[in-house]
Amino acid sequence: MAVPNSELDRQFEYLTEVRQLLQDRFGDVSPKAFTHTYGCQGNVADGERIDGLLEQMGYEFVDTPAEADFILFNTCAVREHAEERVYGNVGRLKEFKKTNPDLVIALCGCMVQQEHVAKRLKSHFPYVDLVFGTHVQYRLPELLRRHLMTGERVFDLSDDDDDIAEGLSVRHSNRMKAFLPISYGCNNFCTYCVVPRVRGRERSRQYADVLAEAESLAKAGFKEIMLLGQNVNSYGNDFGERELFPKLLRDINDLPGDFLIRFMTSHPKDCSEALLDTMAACEKVENHLHLPVQSGNSEVLRRMNRHYDRERYLETVRCARQVMPDLALTSDIIVGFPGETYEQFKDTVSLVEEVGFSSLYTFLFSPRVGTPGASMPDPVSREEKQRWFEELQAAQEQVAAARSAAMKGKTYRVLVESRNKAGRLCGRSSENIMIEFDGPEERIGTFADVLVTEPLTWILKGELVG
């Protein structure tokens, strides 16, 4: 499933041509690029590889689109709001094009992989020069060269799943934390989700390639490595190898270096006892599991095509906490799935209270073109769903406050990430909870032990130990 080396060599030749074309156009002044990614960590990882290609082509990066000669939006299609935000921001780029006619405007990612979006971009946004989907990101040098040579608009929405391009340069957006994709696409076809339609079927990277990249990141000094996939638990299933993901965790855990391992996203149907036992046994794997439940009602889960019910989810949680009593759990929840009743929604609230999630990502149902959920009867008004949403948030706030209170007086090892506006250091614990505390600037990018002195609902305040 990997892109052939001959094709990657061809793209490198195009990259070299683009670099020369830009040098001829800009002379001794490097062209400027502004890129922005919407959506999930997988999109961010894609954006880092796109930035790597742009850097190799000679671009320097700027912080605002007004400074740029090349503007790229890497888009998300998970919710309608994200798409509308992209349209609004692209609309504002028209003024930059008037000021700088040679400006190149590009869109890529999940949103533009959809046919109806591509049609809208062609007809309503004539100043967008370059549009390419999720399967051909590695072909950016070729696509950009074509536009620079002809001045024509270039659209490439090929959906060939043979698109795992190894060896691309990565321009990391964070020097402490690195994203490491281990698989692409999804086989689950949840009835609300457009991902399999824009990302393709599930494809795992070769084990040796993933492990080699993890080793390189550890040697480079990254303090946290996050393994990414639409369903990381099923990594290797397309090779015919079950439980390959726990083995990968153990092998990365055994690499030399002082770093942490996180992973997203886990599907409950594939969260096995072997995975939970591996998490408990590996000291570098963080004490946190993101396990999207989406609903606490079994009938709603069936209509979502989630392949588990409420009791199976709760049994997985019980097994996890049996081997990791202090495990922090986070989750995703959709409020107001088509046909959901208030009584079914209350099952979600009760599940949240029973599990005791550290935090939730909660969303009102957003119909996606082409998914079964978009055509299901949906009699509940948005106003009513909003009231449910607020009820769920209030319940989770109480749960989070109780969990934070239980952390008072305990010491946690944190990765110190930054200094906040109040001048305090901020560090994230293994449980994925932020703690702020006083300390010197040189602690940023290191590990520190912090005693929790004041628990708040969503963050903790503490004191540096030692």
Helix content: 25-40%
Total domain modules: 4
Biggest β-sheet strands, sense, barrel: 6 strands, parallel
Helix segment tally: 13
Mean pLDDT: 95
- CATH topology (level 3) name of the largest domain: Rossmann fold
Give the name of the CATH superfamily of the largest domain: Methylthiotransferase, N-terminal domain
Rg calculated over all Cα atoms: 23 Å
What general outline do the C-alpha atoms trace? globular
How far apart are the termini?
50 Å
* Parts with pLDDT < 50 across at least 5 consecutive residues: none
Number of strands: 19
What CATH first level of the largest domain would be assigned?
Alpha Beta
Assembly classification: single chain
Strand numbers in spatial order across the main sheet: 2-1-3-4-5-6
Find the structural class using helix and strand composition: alpha/beta
Residues in β-strands, percent: 15-25%
Question: What CATH architecture label of the largest domain applies?
Answer: 3-Layer(aba) Sandwich
What this model shows, in words?
- This protein has 466 residues and is of the alpha/beta class.
- It has four domains: 5-156, Rossmann fold; 174-286, Transcription Regulator spoIIAA (2-Layer Sandwich), CATH 3.30.750.210; 315-406, Transcription Regulator spoIIAA, CATH 3.30.750; 411-464, Nucleic acid-binding proteins (OB fold (Dihydrolipoamide Acetyltransferase, E2P), Beta Barrel).
- Helices cover 38% and strands 20% of the residues.
- The chain has 13 helices and 19 strands.
- It has helices spanning 5-26, 41-56, 80-99, 115-124, 140-150, 195-199, 207-219, 244-253, 273-281, 298-304, 310-323, 342-355, 382-406, and strands at residues 32-37, 60-61, 70-75, 104-109, 130-132, 154-156, 177-181, 183-184, 203-204, 224-228, 260-264, 288-290, 328-335, 359-364, 411-419, 425-429, 434-437, 447-455, 460-464.
- The strands form five sheets. A six-stranded parallel β-sheet has the order 2-1-3-4-5-6, with helices on both faces. A five-stranded mixed barrel has the order 15-16-17-19-18.
- Strand 16 and strand 17 (434-437) form a beta hairpin.
- The radius of gyration is 23 Å and the shape is globular.
- The model has no long low-confidence stretch (mean pLDDT 95).
